[in-house]
Amino acid sequence: MGKKVLAVDDSKTMRDMVSFTLKGAGYEVVEAADGLLALDALGSNQVDLVITDINMPNMDGIGLVKALRQNPAHSSTPILVLTTESDDSKKNEGRAAGATGWIVKPFEPEKLLKVVQKVCG
Amino acid sequence: MDDYAQFKATYFAECAELLADVETQLSELNEGSGDPEVLHAIFRAVHSIKAGAGAFKFTQLATFSHEFEALLDRMRDGRIQVTEPGVNLLFRSTDILSAMVEAAENEENLSDEYGKEILAEITSMAKGSTVDPAQIDLTQTSEDTATAPATTEQTSDEKKNYFIKFTPKAELFKHANEPLLIIRELQTLGNLTSEPNLDKLPQLSNLDAKKPIFPGISLYFQMQTLKM
Asked: Which stretches of chain A sit within 8 Å of chain B by CB?
């Protein structure tokens, strides 16, 4: 069974793209449309990687990263922040919250896969 | 990103929903809604449209939505005051955005000039200064500069926020003016953060050792109320 990835984005288009890319490479993908739904989907279940957008309703990506880092069950889960924001302030905010890495949209499928494989194998 | 062509239909369906939502939120804004979530929702919608446009290489749409998003970002965090002309510009920008989405969906080419006038208005408003930077006279006192009628927002009875674009003319240094003196003076009046406008720096090959370079800075200044 492939490694499990949680893809979080309020855009269905973006979730579909990430899922399509990762499923094609053998990953199991669970999707959520915002940070709160991601926390609901996770519960105490482990995933091998979380990929999250920043700008989302209800709970944004930074809030999700912080919530996961405060939860002992997910405090060491790799988290990649996936967003069109490329300014340093957002990157720094993500890093400070505990994100593992950063991918700027739009992304090439190969690049996304390469980073995902590097982070969670 | 051709691998993702199959997701275009999803994207255009999503755009239709997002644009309808933007119209609804803009109507609320126009009716005077002070709910900050209204601007956040509009920002997220434009942000999502931009992300897809970038993915599918709809260049004109991606460029326009990027600038539109930048203006919304400044409005939602308070750097730009939401005024009636501002809301009007958001409505007109949404019309352009809708037309660009429709053209992309129908694989129609819009002229390169399409939307450029609105884009110029967006850029101008996003830069946030009602003061023409070229008109700043560096012979004025630091106090004049600090209280210039730049975009302002009163956040409380105690403090006022100013966004100042400071782009002096090249002749500045000929008259022995020193911009740092003004900046230092501002620092004594409140909280000041600055950001250089690095995009104005000339290419290395165009540098002239005899000409001073001052590409300008953006100053975010919060002035404490002076107690007499």
From this structure: 10-14, 16-17, 20-21, 55-57, 84, 105-109
Residue in chain B closest to A54 (alpha carbons) equals B44
Angle at A56 between CA B3 and CA B97, to 5 degrees: 65
Same domain, B149 and B111: no
Q: Both B87 and B108 in a single domain?
A: yes
Residues B52 and B151 in one domain: no
Give B1→chain A minimum CA distance, Å.
6
Identify whether residues B118 and B8 lie together within a single domain: yes
Q: Do B4 and A10 touch (CB under 8 A)?
A: no
Contact B3 A21 (CB under 8 A): yes
Pair B171, B198 in one domain? yes
Number of domains in chain A: 1
Averages of pLDDT over runs of 10 residues in chain B (228 residues) are 80 97 95 90 96 94 95 92 93 97 95 94 79 34 31 43 68 66 76 71 72 71 56
Say yes or no for a CB contact (<8 Å) between A11 and B3: no
ipTM higher than the 0.90 cut: no
Closest CA to A20 of A104, A101, A79, A107: A107
Per the omega criterion (within 30 degrees of 0), is the bond before A106 cis?
yes
From the list A56, A84, A109, the residue facing B50 with the nearest CB is A84
Residues paired with A5 in a beta bridge: A29, A49
Domain end: B127, B150, B185, which one?
Answer: B127
